[in-house]
Each structure stands twice: as C-alpha cells, then as structure tokens.
Design goal:
This protein is mostly beta strands. The protein is built from no helices and 34 strands.
Amino acid sequence: MASSNKSNRNYLLKSGTEVTASTYRFAGYTPAIPLTPSVTYTVQLMVTVPSGVDQIAVYLSSGMIKQANWTGLSAGKQLLTATFAAKYYSGMTPGDSAAYAVVELYQYYKGTQATKSVTVHWAKVELGSTATPWCPAPEEETAGRNYYGSHLNVTAYNSASVSRSNSSAPNGLYIVGASSGNGWLRISKAIDGNGYWTVSFWMRGSQSVAGGFNIDMCDTAPLDGNVRVAFRNDNQWVRVEKTFYITNYTEDLYHFIDFQSLDWLYIYVKDLKVERGTKATAWCPPVEDSAATKAEISLFVTESEVGTLISNAVIRADQIDLVGKVTLTHLDSTIIDGGKIKTSLIDVDNLTVKSCANIGQFTVDSYGLTTTSSTARIAFEWGTNRFIRMNSAETAMFYARNDNGKLMELNAYGSGATALTLLANTSGSGYALSSTGMSRMVARYTSELNTVTGLALGVKSGTTFTGATNVGNTASWVDFLVATGNITLPKASDCPGKIIFIKITGGSRTITSSSTIYKCGDSGTYTSESFNNRALFFISNGTAWYEFACYQR
C-alpha cells in the first residue's frame, strides 16, 4: 500500500472510481495535495478510447495550462503514461483558488466529429519519473477496515448452498458443495475500486476428508497465481490469505469475490475479511454492521466510610481496541475474579508465570513444574499407545543428554522388584539393548561375578542339568553336577553375541556344536571336545563359537 511518506503515493482522490463521459472535459480529479510547480510527476490513465478520439490531454488551472497529452490514439482500452513538470497559469494557482489545483482531462477529435464517450477506469499521479502500480491516495485508505459483512449479498449457484448463521463458522460462511463439483458462490460488492485487495479467513471441513475451492476476485487470479485453497483431512482450521491486484473494477459488474469449484463437502469459513492492501490483518467487524455496540463508559465518584473519594469506571463494549502504549497500574490484587479466559489462541513472545499457577496437580513455581501428588502424571497418548516423542521426524523417539554426572539411575528394592524391563519384538538387525561409544558396558551379579568387568554377561539364572542336553539359544548359564551326559551348544548363527557359561562339576563332559569352536589360548579348533571339572565361557560372533575363558575348578 502507498503511504504519504513514499514517492509512489497517488495524489488523486477518488481515482479508482470508473468515470464515463462524452463532454470535452470528460473527467477531473482533486489532488489530496496540490501539485508543486516545477516538480516532476508521472501521470497514468487506464482509459477506453472510442473511435474518432485522436488526442487526450491533462490540464491544470481550469484548462489553461496543458501538462501532458497523447496523440494519434487508436480505439480500445489502453494505459497512457507520461511525465511532466507541473506548472500553473499566472493568477490561477492553488493559492488563488482550490479549483485551479484540479487535474482535468480533455478529449480532442478529428475534423468536425462530435465528442465521444470516453471511460477512465483509474488514474494516478505520483512524484518522480517512474510509474508504479495504482493505489488509492493515502488519505482514502482505512487501515484494516473490513469490507465484508452482513450488508453484502452472498448467493450460491449450481446446487451449492451457503449459510451465514452457523455457530461453527463465526463471522463467515457455512458452505455445502454440489455433487457435480461445480458449485460456486459469489460475494457481491465486496470491493469498491481498483488496486491491491487482500481476502483472508480460516477454513476447515468436518468429515475427515481434504477439500477446498478456487478463489477469484473480479475475474482476476491472486498474485501468487495459485487459485486453489484447501484444508486437510484432520478437520483442523487452516489459514488462507490471498492478495489480488485489480485493474478492471466497475460499479455494476466487477466488484465480486467468487468461491468456485466447491468440493462436495461441508466447508466452514470463519473470520472472513476483505481489505485494501497487500497485508492481511486481524479480523474486525465492518463499519456497516450496526450490531457492534458503541463503547459506553460510566464514570462516577463515591465516598468511602472514612470520607475518602474513590473514582470508578465501567466500560461496556463488544470490542475494545487499545492502540499505542497501555499502562495498567495498581493491579496488585485479583484481576479476574470468578470468570474464565476462553480463546482459541494465546500468542505471546514471552510468557512468565512466577508462582501460584496450577496445571492439573502440578504447580508452576520459580523452579519449574513440581508436584507432591502420588497420582499426578504426564502422559502422551495416541490411541492406545503411550509415548514421549520429542520430534517425530527424528530417528529416536526419546532423546536425552547430560554432559556431567549420571543421565539416568534406576533402583529396585524388595523381593521381586525389577529395575528395568526391555521387550523388543524385532527382526533382522533389531536389538533389545544396544551400547555404543568409547566406554564399556558392565553387567554384574555382585555375589559371584563381581571380579569380571568390561563384558556384558548373562544374568545368573540358568538351568541345572543332570544328563546330556542341548543348551539351546536361550540359556545363559549351564550347571552340570554329575559325571554323565554331554553338552551340545546351539548354532553360532542362531545367537550372535551370546555368552554361555558352563560349569562342569565332577567327571568328564563332551561339548559339541555344529559350528566351529575356537580353543582358548591357541589356534586350534574343534566341534567336539571333552572337559573334566572345568568352568568355561563361550561367545558367538554369529559364525563360530569362541572359548574365551577356561579354568580348572
């Protein structure tokens, strides 16, 4: 939008209103500020010239001083542009009379032909020698004014329907599309001149299906070229902002906004706003809607029991806009008493709660979120699954980091207590527990394995065997107590990373496997070997077994 402190401001008032006349002087525009003598200006006219009109000229001083002119014109709609240095006739300046400041347009015709009907669609005079897009004079711009309201006519076509009284679409429209997909509606008289216009609203569906419609203003596409606006299939509100540059406005036809190609769905549009300019601002009611209550301020003075005068003020209004710096003092007691703040959005750059704020059974204090309740919980739920997700796009569902000290400590006391349970229903390369990094991971049973460090060992819970057996790929502790029976290890490929401890008590045992077993301490291998009164450790690398500890009992 132009503004009074920019060189591309339009000096002409009411320059976006279409004018048609067949007189010699066929148009005149009063400048918001009279043009300054000897200063360079650029004039633009979007005109429709009839056949026979040979020349159009721009004048000041009531037609006494020509500023610019175009000759040899052809018939049809066209944009005329020229640069001139403003000048006035002696004794006929804006200081002599305001009428001499009017920018006047004259037509000239060939030979003896009579004047013709010339149409000016819009006009602009701006400072300098560069022509920029049309805009209204800053004096005519109303910042944030909403041009859409109940005073406008909204009509649906091709079996579509529209309602303006649906509670789920406040300040907007409830639309039902047609089965053909060709339903559309028109908002008439939504704009009143050429230039930049922006329409904004929130939209959603109610049937968990994505949908939308095309948007058009005066048969013109939006500046971004994308006419389709759409909502998702989650029934959530989606913000829409579309800006148009209108050059074909007419009072009798090109003044509308169309919602076209409506999907066959229920469509809710709320907080609909049409405004001048390229920036969408917060919704406000139009000045034409008389439903808004004017602010009523009741001010009175009372006297306390001890004779102190007390001033009181009550403000009743549908809407209160506070512009500029607002200071509220002496608010050291209850501000909102016995009521609620209900809003669909609280948007702040910084919100500080120092104390006395409660969220469920949690208290917000200067140290964070605390609770002493045994039933308080923080749960993140989706359907029947509960999880904590910091960022669903990350590979880790939960990520935490601590550069000093312990990141997490789990303690379990009492009979049957478990500090940590891992369940991994995985396949392929999945693991229940994976440890990486430069530090070792130690798992120990303190009463018997407390001298072994640096390894992840199976827990001390296994099977006591009294005869020949297959160890299988689930056991981690095998204890033989008598002198009979052989021991068969599972395939190394069935349990990569598995550690098996075998204690042979009395007699001799033969340990066999379908996989190669590498001997401890030398380069020999075996698939069947006898041991007497030994304790052995075996570990699988997924291909073979390695006897990595063996000692006499």
